[in-house]
Write a structure and sequence with these properties.
This protein is 39% helix and 16% strand. By secondary structure, the protein is an alpha/beta fold. It is globular and about 50 Å long. The two termini are 27 Å apart.
Length: 445
């Protein structure tokens, strides 16, 4: 619901608790004459591959930190930054969000302090679930690679066409958009309750995966200025230490809308409009900013039929339960179920364990967020899965949510030696990924 509502994680203050394994030398022993070794490159060892992965991950994390350093450099170096940060922490602890975010300066302090670690964590999560996020054509291309002869490629192409038609609801005559990208190469996202960390994390994923993203950020807070400034830095050419220049993303691969709304106040009709994308609205003139701010009553213009999207609730759902209440949050989740198209993914990331509990009833009995979520969209969905065609959504007959990935507790750890003006912490989280579609035969809920 509100990125501003998200409390800072209480993770250990450390840059890294996992040190890379030390290299140990090994010698071959034995009596007998050994054949001279060939003067080729030495074989790749697991240790060497692990070291290379660590180096690559550190470079990725540093690149994202540089985005925040460039965007909020003046905020981080301001003489009163520490004082503003303490005021913000106190207001967040009291859950006085109106006081905490009464002006843009407070939003800047929040984004500079807590969004960097979350952006890095979210980016890693997107890469971990990459197989679910990629449209059907991309998934087949990744699995197939460049293997096979021409006839095999022809067969694969036919399969790709069929999958694109079935899973993405592709309509004839609309296989490409105005930017020249094929529609099935675009990841469509509705990020509910987020702005600063989400836009950077999705930019990181787009740069790594090679796909295009069409993202709507929805939050009750006035984050449009932060979104604009981060987007500008993401598309700029920052000079690295070695003098090379490269932007993290291409403008043509990354479209972002920001909508300032309280998600719990939306009705099903508005949600439907948010989930239906119109690529023709992306045909902006050269050099025009590609971020659309919409703080009014109307969502961005959309087409007539919904497409599968990725919906994210990143450190948001627990706040919906606690700040908005069980009734409103349950209604919102059921609205989503009634609105989404088959193939839609729902990604929920939040604090683990007792940090994500909501009180119900006069006795204020606490229930885990995960249990409430599963009860709402799995148990109820299984019992009320459509058996009668909906005149407006005949394709949803027999569809329900299915949990396809789940982790009750995981750590994101910062690499050693990262550069950032202030100290950051590791963070712990729980993750649950759901897919809406026809139920699997024999699968339980």
């Amino acid at each position: 619901m509100r990125e501003k509502n998200k409390r800072p994680d209480r993770a250990p203050v450390t840059n890294n608790s996992r040190k890379p394994p030390s290299k140990s030398s090994s010698s071959k022993k034995g009596g007998g004459t050994s054949k001279p070794s060939k003067k080729n490159d030495p074989p790749r060892t697991p240790l060497k591959e692990a070291d290379e992965e660590d180096i690559h991950e550190k470079a990725r994390q540093q690149a994202l930190l540089d985005v925040f350093s460039s965007t909020f450099g003046s905020v981080l170096s301001a003489p009163d930054f520490t004082a503003q940060l303490q005021q913000l922490k106190a207001a967040l602890f009291r859950r006085d969000f109106e006081e905490a975010f009464r002006n843009e300066a407070a939003l800047d302090v929040y984004a500079a302090r807590w969004s960097p670690t979350r952006a890095m964590c979210y980016g890693r999560i997107f890469r971990q679930i990459d197989g679910h996020l990629r449209p059907p054509r991309r998934r087949l291309d990744t699995a197939k690679g460049r293997e096979g002869n021409e006839s095999e490629r022809g067969i694969v192409s036919e399969i790709q066409d069929e999958l694109a038609n079935v899973e993405l609801g592709e309509q004839s005559g609309s296989s490409s958009n105005v930017s020249g990208h094929e529609d099935h190469d675009t990841l469509r996202v509705l990020a509910i309750g987020g702005a600063a960390a989400e836009i950077v994390a999705f930019a990181d994923y787009v740069a790594d995966s090679g796909i295009r993203a069409d993202i709507t950020l929805l939050d009750v807070g006035p984050w449009e200025s932060v979104v604009h400034r981060l987007r500008a830095v993401l598309e700029s050419d920052p000079t690295s230490e070695d003098g090379n220049k490269s932007a993290l993303i291409k403008a043509s691969d990354f479209h972002v809308d920001f909508v300032q709304k309280d998600v719990l106040s939306l009705d099903k009709e508005y949600l439907t409009k948010l989930l239906i994308l119109n690529d023709q609205d992306r045909n902006n003139s050269a050099g025009e900013p590609d971020v659309t701010t919409n703080a009014g009553n109307d969502p961005p213009r959309r087409l007539d039929n919904p497409n599968p999207v990725l919906i994210t609730l990143l450190f948001t759902l627990n706040e919906l339960y606690t700040a908005g209440g069980i009734k409103l949050t349950t209604s919102f989740l059921r609205f989503l179920t009634d609105t989404v198209a088959p193939g839609t993914l729902l990604l929920v990331v939040d604090s683990p364990g007792s940090y994500s509990e909501a009180a119900i009833g006069k006795e204020a009995k606490k229930y885990p967020m995960q249990w409430l979520l599963d009860h709402t969209i799995l148990s109820v969905s299984a019992k009320e899965a459509q058996t009668v065609p909906d005149r407006d959504k005949p394709e949803t007959v027999g569809c329900k949510w299915e949990k396809i990935e789940s982790c009750d507790s995981a750590w994101f750890r910062l690499s050693e030696g990262l550069r950032y003006p202030i100290q950051l912490e590791n963070m712990r989280y729980q993750l649950h990924l759901y897919r809406y579609g026809p139920s699997s035969k024999g699968a339980g809920t």
